[in-house]
């Protein structure tokens, strides 16, 4: 089995973005970057919605070629290797995008590693990925997608990096009407960061967490 793993940054009051989808108020510090790379190292497939995919394909290929174009690297040159590896893994991993609007023309440099799945086929496609082998099925961002998958019982683990900010409004992490039973597996905090990582298993099974 390849668990479906959601990894997301969330404000203290439960938002994954501010009004208008603005994520600039969230604390995307070194702990956020390190978590993303950890999850990528454990992944066999990236699963995304169209908005997240467009943002990633428009950003990471340039970082793979030159990490200094990343604002984080410009602030801290020692982060270059982390961002380069992140960019390379984003490029190399198979990517499944659930969308009725994305076309092959939108996939650009990631065309050879991207599969587009229509929304009506999403549950079946994710169930097939989950039943396979070869690493986590990793979801970054894509709250609309993983909210739907959570309601359908197709999410196995949640990694919520909770930042010490209160956005007050915006896109809530958990949409209305989506029940979920979560079991806390671990909490962690990295030196120098006020972000706190909460790791949850979805449901009541006793499976071991992903590494």
From TrEMBL:
Domain of life: Bacteria
Domain Bacterial bifunctional deaminase-reductase C-terminal: residue ranges: 4-188
Entries under Pfam families matching the protein: RibD_C
SUPFAM superfamilies from the UniProt entry: Dihydrofolate reductase-like
PANTHER family recorded: 2,5-DIAMINO-6-RIBOSYLAMINO-4(3H)-PYRIMIDINONE 5'-PHOSPHATE REDUCTASE, DIHYDROFOLATE REDUCTASE FAMILY PROTEIN (AFU_ORTHOLOGUE AFUA_8G06820)
Entry protein name: Dihydrofolate reductase family protein
Organism of this sequence: Geodermatophilus maliterrae
């Amino acid at each position: 089995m390849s668990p479906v793993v959601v990894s997301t940054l969330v404000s203290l009051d439960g938002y994954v973005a501010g009004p208008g989808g603005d994520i600039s108020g969230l604390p995307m510090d070194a702990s956020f970057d390190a978590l993303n790379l950890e999850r990528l190292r454990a992944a066999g497939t990236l699963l995304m919605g169209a908005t997240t995919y467009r943002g990633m394909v428009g950003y990471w290929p340039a970082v793979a070629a030159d990490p200094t174009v990343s604002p984080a690297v410009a602030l801290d040159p020692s982060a270059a290797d982390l961002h380069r590896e992140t960019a390379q893994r984003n490029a190399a991993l198979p990517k499944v995008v659930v969308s009725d609007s994305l076309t092959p023309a939108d996939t650009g440099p990631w065309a050879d590693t991207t599969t587009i799945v229509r929304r009506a086929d999403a549950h079946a496609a994710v169930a097939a990925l989950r039943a396979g082998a070869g690493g986590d099925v990793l979801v970054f961002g894509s709250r609309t997608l993983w909210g739907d998958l959570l309601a359908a019982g197709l999410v196995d683990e949640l990694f919520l990096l909770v930042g010490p900010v209160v956005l007050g409004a915006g896109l809530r992490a958990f949409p209305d009407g989506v029940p979920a039973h979560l079991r806390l597996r671990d909490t962690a905090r990295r030196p120098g960061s006020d972000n706190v990582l909460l790791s949850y298993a979805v449901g009541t099974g006793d499976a071991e967490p992903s590494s």
